[in-house]
Amino acid sequence: MSAQADILRRGWCPGVRRPMTTGDGLLVRLHPFAGRLSADQAGRVAQAAREYGNGHLDITARGNLQIRGVREDTYPTLLAILEREGMAEPEGDGPNRLTVLSPLAGIDPLDRCNALALAQDIENAAGAIDFLPAKFFVAIDGGGGMPLDAVGADLHLLARDEDSIAFGISTSNGLHWIGTSRLSRTPDAVHTILSGFADLARKGITEVRRLRDLGPDLVQELATRATLDAAAEPPRRAAAPRAGILSLESERAVLLALPFGRCSAEQLLQAADWSERFASGEIRLSFTRGLLLPRIADGYVPALIDEASRAGFITEADDARLSLVACPGRPDCGSALTAAPADAVRIAESCGNLLRQGATLHVSGCPKGCAHPGKADLTLVGRADGRYDVLPDGSTRDASVLDLSIDEIMLRLSPLNTLDALRSAFPEHRR
């Protein structure tokens, strides 16, 4: 397929070689392995976003980086630059990057295995399987301080100890554990499951595009093929932090959050500068839709936090804005049916007390739920009539029995102060 034909496609997982037409121009998505960029790479991406796009970037819920507002006449030059920098994905129709990791992988003292090495082994073993959908991905969770439970992976791997990996499938009710494997056998077991899923699609046995949507009998068949041992429910961990200072034995990391994951070229340039002045010269894109700067000495942390706060980053773990998730919405996204960020801000202004209590609110401009694949305390899904399907304690994948206008939603939310009150605000869903 030609690059020009690719430009006109919509509704798949875009990359550098296959941009997607959306509301504000072409969207070019970078998929760096493990979400890692050097300061030099980040600086070049920021300059390119400013010169060849509209200066806006997104950090996605898989730790990818999107350049927005690229024009058809500037795209070929941008492609050449990103190819030269080694930031274009391989040719092919499968996943642009198969694995997603914690941004702390490799430096988290709580990790029980080398998640980075395991991810590379899985990419080598299974990354070239034919018939895997482009959106397909595997979460590699080392068991440390930033759990990946909510990322919505097709296959979720969790290190239970240094030689035991639990295999899970994402469902609307959380992770369903299907078995365990020795660490050394895990890449082959993943290859067996993924190639088996691809075979089911190739032979027409299933039409689902995601492993997480496969029927339980077929999932069990794949687990049996992979000779997984019996699974036990792993203990629950606290949700991943979304911002703030993270202690890592003798050093620190700082997780910088961005409202709705939206980053300006100037902010990315500033983060690149901080990573060189205060840290290790590396930026890690986080599935929390923020930037992590690793390996910072204690003495540099206050200056970094001060500069980042003034630059518009969220630096405090208890900031109420962290409870709010929204996609780019209309008009920036061609798939969006509502102005999700603007509506999210309106809701936040009327229910700040509720957000400060830790309630999570996801406003999605369409049913795809790109900004947040999992559940939230309240999920709102945009409709063609401008209203929202309302899903308390649900995700965009769930069915709703209620739709309301943004004004009606605000009327119900504005008097609330607690999660218990939120759960009773939409009684229609308890029928």
Automatic annotation (TrEMBL):
Keyword Kinase included in the entry's annotation: no
Key words, A-Z: 4Fe-4S, Heme, Iron, Iron-sulfur, Metal-binding, Oxidoreductase
PROSITE patterns xref list: NIR_SIR
Enzyme class, first EC level, given as a word: oxidoreductase
Transmembrane segments: none
Residue ranges occupied by any Nitrite/Sulfite reductase ferredoxin-like domain in the UniProt entry: 19-83, 253-308
Annotated GO MF terms: precorrin-3B synthase activity
EC number(s) recorded for this UniProt protein: 1.14.13.83
Identification of the protein by name: Precorrin-3B synthase
Annotated source species: Microvirga terrestris
Protein encoded by which gene: cobG
